[in-house]
């Protein structure tokens, strides 16, 4: 019984001292899955603490989906690779949010390379100036420890508007 009590006390202690948002000069990794109108995605990214409440970052994503074209018998499959630069403002200090939470919003610049195959044969490749876009995002994180947390984010204003969720690790 003493071991269980000690374990629970240490576990709770770990939750109590989580720190957010990312400090100036700090680095964090984010990874997870997303859902958009164009299918499921996986993503990975890095953020850097530029100023006390401002971060900048980069992200890469992969989207894939199968669809039919107005009930046709053709098998359409699209694959999309995305690269994104982002900037976020973190509201913790302004709104006096507890340090285990991180609430943020910002803007991003996106580039997506999109390829579609019909019955296994490449028919379209969308790579041009129309593949760039601007978007907005808002999200939050909950940190279990000083270094590890979970995140959820919604975004809009570009072709991949949707929601994503994952994990965050601070170095």
From TrEMBL:
Q: Which SUPFAM superfamilies match?
A: OMPA-like
Q: Any stretches that span the bilayer, and where are they?
A: none
Keyword list (alphabetical) reads: Signal
**Do the record's keywords include Signal?**
yes
Q: Does the keyword Transferase apply?
A: no
Limits of the Outer membrane protein beta-barrel domain: 8-160
Q: Which domain of life is it from?
A: Bacteria
What start and end residues bound the annotated signal peptide?
1-20
Name of the protein in its database record: Outer membrane beta-barrel protein
Identify the species of origin. Answer: Mariniflexile gromovii
